[in-house]
Model the fold of this input.
Amino acid sequence: TKSKNLLEHYLIVKTMVFHSAKLRVQELAEALNVDSPEIIATCTLLKIPASSQLSSLTVNQCKEIIDYLNK
Done:
């Protein structure tokens, strides 16, 4: 999907520039054009530990969240 491709591109750029394969909740929310609380609520449903918009998410966690939101 478009949002998944956009996120993958964003992660590639972030990894190249910052040498980091993690995103904060806030960054994922911005990339997907949704609110941070929606991402945090989704994390809670998926049992992913994220308590604030500054919580870090792995690439796999981001993919899991995106898959859930695209259902």
Observations:
- Strands lie at 22-24, 56-58.
- The longest strand covers residues 22-24.
